[in-house]
Design brief:
The chain is mostly helical. Helices cover 55% and strands 7% of the residues. The chain contains 19 helices and ten strands. The strands form four sheets. A three-stranded mixed β-sheet has the order 1-2-3. The relative contact order is 0.11.
């Protein structure tokens, strides 16, 4: 059975599909899609329910043995060796949730809330938590009935996302707060009642199992993975446009560095994909004309872009792998071990690999940004020339022409690059020691993720500015060619992919929007284009030429 499978149209008009959680491997992209769409119904397979039942039997055996087990019949953290009396065990479950419900800051967005709950639910089905199958079903119903706990963004140091998960658990037991459909805040008990759910009554050991996981870092990280994949495509698209522009204004645009021969000579993961995308974007255009007089070598921001973009793509792949390690692993402490039939203390709640993947991506994004800003700088002299020509025309009595591109977008790009460099600094090294020096090392994975989210937003704006700058210059060049005396044989066509981008962005540029509005709308347009145009989609890695399949 698949770990997770999306089937379409189970209930036409009500549900857009189902996300079936089994016991086999689950992919991060599947989780992101299910979390982003509240119309997807979450189901648990019989295999998953059976595995959770076996896991619960191990917990019950530990209870019956009377031995000390961390968090089951002992306090937490520095109180790890202090026993909880048997008659207080059920009250202790409530106390654990209330104690950990201590997050602060802005609330997570609805898709992030769904991602947190879904990631924790998947964790239950791996068999390491020891929760009852009915508890897992309850979490599935939170998703299916639209119950969205109000989860504060800040509070986790990356040794389990305790505060975020406690906000979910608080609503599950009829406490805490939730987001209503209109965005208002309601009591958790009211949110459950509106959804037709009774508060969950916890069994011994379940409170810790509900809160002790990295479901915020995993779930929100899975959502960010999709944005990173799109950003990698945007970087290649902006690069292709700049290649076309530098060819027309500066004699550059050498395609040799993107050739299959160069890519085959060095097996950098992702490099070949990036180079193939650029070739697809410019295919059929003037850059492929062998008669074109072209510079022997472009600047490194053009020439070595496949290596930079490819290394970034490799980091995105590493993030996907790290997310799937967490999604498909058992990060619980104590771990319910079916093989030995024991509950075992351990450190699988420390998502170090995931935290470092978040860290590395911010550094990779900064390098992508450096190359982008340098290409923008090289496209600035043609803009200055256009302004000079407009002034000369105005001296002869022609009304001063309005320019479609705000003149100092390059400076905005430089400021964005400075922010990217700042965000590339390590986030995971700053955790203090906690709980009487028992918890003396943490990953700060949530902070690394949040800084990555900021970096993605920043890089998206920077790359959009590059695309707008190149598109403006290409539209100007096309206009000059169309109005000149060149013969049809001398017309310099754009590639099939780049012309589609220029055509779309030219419509926006012609509206002469304020810079902030222009960049925001261009980001939306590019997002739609990247999703829908074959030339802009990432080719599959198979094959040794740019005729690779579409992903």
């Amino acid at each position: 059975m698949d770990g997770a499978r999306v089937s379409e149209g189970l209930q036409p008009g009500t549900r857009r599909g189902a996300f079936l959680i089994g016991t086999a491997h689950i992919r991060a992209e599947e989780v992101a899609r299910a979390a982003a769409d509240p119309g997807v119904e979450v189901l648990l397979s019989a295999d998953a329910l059976e595995l959770m039942g076996l896991s619960r039997e191990v917990v019950q055996a530990a209870i019956d043995s009377g031995h000390k087990v961390y968090g089951l019949n002992t306090l937490l953290g520095s109180g790890r060796d202090t026993a909880v009396e048997e008659e207080s065990i059920l009250d202790y479950q409530i106390q654990v949730i209330r104690y950990h419900h201590s997050g602060v800051g802005a609330l997570l967005a609805p898709d992030e809330v769904r991602a947190v709950i879904l990631a924790r639910l998947i964790g239950f089905t791996r068999g390491g938590s020891g929760v009852r199958p009915d508890t897992a079903r309850f979490y599935a119903e939170l998703l299916n009935r639209g119950v969205a706990p109000a989860i504060p963004r800040d509070g986790s140091v990356g040794s389990s996302d305790l505060t975020q998960l406690a906000a979910v658990a608080a609503v599950a037991i009829g406490e805490g707060q939730a987001l209503a459909a209109d965005g208002s805040i309601v009591a958790g008990a009211e949110a459950l009642a509106r959804a037709g759910l009774e508060p969950l009554v916890l069994a011994p050991g379940e409170a810790l199992a509900l809160v002790s996981a990295n479901a915020y870092s995993i779930g929100a990280g899975a959502l960010e993975l999709g944005r990173l994949l799109r950003l990698a495509d945007l970087a290649d698209t902006a690069l292709a446009l700049s290649l076309e522009a530098t060819a027309r204004y500066d004699g550059g645009g050498n395609l040799s560095p993107f050739s299959p021969a160069v890519q085959a000579a060095k097996a950098v993961d992702g490099q070949r994909v990036s180079a193939a995308r650029v070739r697809r974007l410019v295919r059929g255009g003037w850059l492929e004309d062998p008669r074109r007089d072209v510079s022997v070598q472009d600047a490194l921001s053009f020439r070595a872009a496949p290596q930079t973009h490819g290394a970034f793509r490799a980091q995105v792949t590493a993030l996907a792998e790290a997310l799937e390690v967490e999604l498909n692993g058992r990060g619980d402490n104590p771990l319910t071990d079916l093989v030995s039939g024991r509950m075992v203390s351990g450190g699988n709640f420390q998502p170090m690999q995931l935290a470092l993947a978040f860290e590395a991506l911010r550094l990779g994004l900064a390098h992508v940004g450096i190359s982008s800003e340098r290409r923008i700088a090289k496209l600035y002299p043609p803009q200055r020339l256009i302004r000079q020509l407009n002034l000369e025309a105005a001296r002869s009595g022609t009304p001063l022409a309005s320019e479609d591109l705000p003149g100092l977008l390059w400076y905005s790009a430089a400021g964005l690059l400075a922010e990217l460099k700042f965000l590339a600094a390590p986030a995971t090294l700053g955790a203090p020691t906690l709980s009487a020096d028992v918890e003396d090392h943490s990953t700060l994975a949530p902070l690394a993720l949040q800084q990555l989210e900021r970096a993605v937003e920043t890089a998206d704006k920077l790359l959009t500015i590059e695309a707008l700058t190149a598109a403006y210059l290409l539209a100007e060049a096309q206009g000059a060619e169309g109005g000149g005396s060149e013969s049809a044989a001398e017309v310099r066509p754009l590639g099939k992919g780049t012309v589609a981008v220029v055509d779309r962005l030219s419509v926006l540029l012609a509206d002469r929007l304020p810079a902030a509005v222009l960049v925001d709308r261009a980001r939306d347009e590019l997002r739609d284009l990247l999703a829908g145009l074959p030339e802009l989609r990432t080719p599959a890695p198979a094959g040794d030429d740019d005729a690779g399949g579409e992903a």
